[in-house]
Specification:
mainly alpha; AhpD-like; AhpD_core; 7 helices; Carboxymuconolactone decarboxylase family protein
Amino acid sequence: MTARLDFFGNATAARFAKYINSAGKVISDSSLPAAIQELVKIRASQINGCGFCTDMHTKDAAHAGETALRLNLVAVWREATVFTDAERAALALTEQGTRIADAAGGVPDRVWADAAEHFDTDQLAALVGLIALINAYNRMNVVAATPAGDYTPGQWG
């Protein structure tokens, strides 16, 4: 499988990627726990069918010490006992924020309230930004048909 577009070989795509990566740095430098950041990226990527991002973020999470058990259960987090209440709140917000088109009223107040019980306003801002950002990355890679499987943790710094 070959990608339809090389994000690094095309000048316009590379400039766009530079700016979107800068947004990612703001989030990665935030106080939102790194483990939650990876769970959010994985779950949104699963929902969006982005093989490239699912590959990247499961490998990055494992490299950072996440267990295979938890990684294997992200897609069924509601039925799994291995996630904290804060992680569940973040995953619920991720699903609602990723599936906006499926919910006529947007993100339900109860989902937001649950997240607000576990995260301060800076962490909530990072979580909202992260959900928006990973959905943008997913869409870029799905549209460009970026293949999955070859990512190595840390290959981009």
